[in-house]
Amino acid sequence: HTGTDYETTADEQNIDIPIFAICQGPLALKKYASGYGGVAVQQCQINNEVVTVIYGHLKLSSIMQKTGATIKAGDQIALLGKGFSAETDGERKHLHLGIHKGAEINLLGYAQSQKELSNWIDAETLLNK
Fold first, then answer.
1. Strands 120-121 and 76-79
2. Do the bridges between strand 49-58 and strand 37-46 make them parallel or antiparallel, or are there none, so unpaired?
3. pLDDT tens digits for 13-50?
């Protein structure tokens, strides 16, 4: 799995859950993507390394920034999509947070080999410091 899944609680199933940027940089992509539903991709630098950050399972219509707009760390990007709907591509209500090394947009949700995973950064190692 290329990202970290952040689960919601039973109490959060029918309320809006805002998702905030983890870094500063431009919104590179916002669209519906198979496996994610609504997805936003942000380009930024983490620890002086260029990365793309994938925020998956979002309510696409809640992404107010235009592609190319700079988003600061802590800015709201979107709301989580409704569980088991088109907004999450049929998945449960949760955030898929993937961090890919480099500026290339890669929406891969699952890697087929350990080598493929080497281009991904574990969000847990960054966010729990």
1. unpaired
2. antiparallel
3. 999 999 999 999 999 999 999 999 999 999 999 999 99
